[in-house]
Specification:
The chain is an all-alpha fold. It contains seven helices and no strands. It folds into two domains: about 90 residues, no CATH class; about 30 residues, no CATH class.
Length: about 170
């Protein structure tokens, strides 16, 4: 509701009281334009600051999504997990973009670049045989203890004992 002469008359105020109220009100209103101008300037500055803050947060979020997608690509290329953070710190994400599925666009080209540039960090796993201290029977004829002791030639008997030492307890 506006402060009007009619409103004040309805309240039962005298003409002098109405004039005093309107004069005081007008004096307050005279200082409002300069105050309103400074508020508008402050509002514009805060609006700009907020827009800059929002843009910075969106940039950080986009870079984090790129980092996560690149980390997943590195893991799929068998990069040593202990080296992922080092590679991410050394990588520039300026030319990278995400596609609609959240993966990196042009992943094949990036995968080739990873295999070329970070080849020293790719983990290759080769199957190894079991470590067997005594290999299994290798094709030599199996002799019993009695057969070995019955060999007449001393050198041949000692060689047979050495080959089948488990029969003699050493």
């Amino acid at each position: 509701m506006n402060l009007t002469r009619e409103f004040l008359m309805e309240l039962g105020l005298t003409e002098e009281q109405i004039e005093a109220i309107l004069a005081a009100h007008s004096a307050d209103m005279a200082s409002l334009p300069e105050y309103a101008g400074s508020l508008a300037d402050r509002f514009e500055a805060l609006q700009q600051e907020f827009d800059d803050y929002r843009a910075e947060n969106e940039r950080r979020d986009e870079e984090q999504r790129l980092r996560d997608a690149y980390r997943a690509l590195l893991a799929r290329q068998n990069i040593d997990p202990r080296r992922l953070d080092v590679i991410l710190r050394a990588t520039r994400f300026d030319g990278m973009a995400l596609d609609d599925s959240g993966r990196l666009a042009d992943e094949d080209r990036l995968a080739q670049a990873i295999r070329r540039d970070w080849a020293d960090f790719i983990v290759t796993r080769r199957p190894r045989g079991a470590c067997v201290p005594l290999p299994p029977y290798g094709g030599r004829p199996v002799r019993t203890k009695d057969e070995i002791l019955s060999i007449q030639d001393t050198a041949e008997r000692q060689r047979a004992i050495a080959e089948n030492h488990e029969l003699f307890g050493f």
